[in-house]
Amino acid sequence: MSSWQAGGLHRTRALAATLLAIAVASALVPLTSTAATAAEAINPISTTAGESSLAVLTPENPEEALPESDPRLVVATEVLTSGKLTALNLSSVARSAYLVQKAKTRNGARSVGKLLAKENYGWTGRQWTCLDKLWIKESQWTYTSHNKRTGAHGIPQAYPATKYEYMGSDWRKNPVTQIMWGLRYIDVRYGTPCKALNTFYRTRMY
Fold it and tell me: What is the pLDDT of residue 174?
């Protein structure tokens, strides 16, 4: 490869990196960590009789605020440095970054969980209600939740926590990775969230 060709390739990759940075930054503007904290303070988590003290109100149409994209790409948080960088890639990465940031609050995690359950498994209505109740009881939708006695961790309380590695190595800091793993676990083991919740009621685990 000539020096002229190498220079052109370098400039192309630099431009792609710049476009990626702009896309991710734009996606994160609607919900900074400060704004997310303020939003929770304005809409505090309510308490429902018989449920966890951190049960929360269901946001109205939470999915309307989320940009649409291929749900199969939702967990992707990195773009390969080689290969063709397309508008779809940039859009998917920007959406992923937005979902991850949003899911770091309890209300945001519920909104993202509701969206991903619908997109990937068709779980709405009663099935969503069962999933919501199950993960409120397990972790109150908190991605840093940790059971010191058992070692179970995260929103779906995977035990051992290293099971998340199947979905992604970023599970400690990425609530979307936890949610995606938890949805798949319920689908494979129980078929539906309501069956998983019924097991939880009988055994206090699922």
Answer: 97
